[in-house]
Design a protein that fits this description.
It is a single chain. By secondary structure, the chain is mostly helical. The chain is 40% helix and 0% strand. It contains 4 helices and no strands. It is elongated, with a radius of gyration of 22 Å.
Amino acid sequence: RAAPPDEPPAMGMAAQPQLVSDEPQAKPQPLDPAPLQALLGAVLSDNTKAAVAEAPENLQAALILGSPDFMRR
């Protein structure tokens, strides 16, 4: 039997972390692809560069990090 939230945990039972917060979460911001392109630009293939350039800005960093060029490094 689990202890009600206002009771301390029974002897020998660790307190369970709160997995869900009641507070509203801020919307995550997309990762800026510019530092990745500057760092990895020399090793990215022309196909990867073209795909990244055509993609929406919020997906560009994910495409770089998920590219075959990055996976080889």
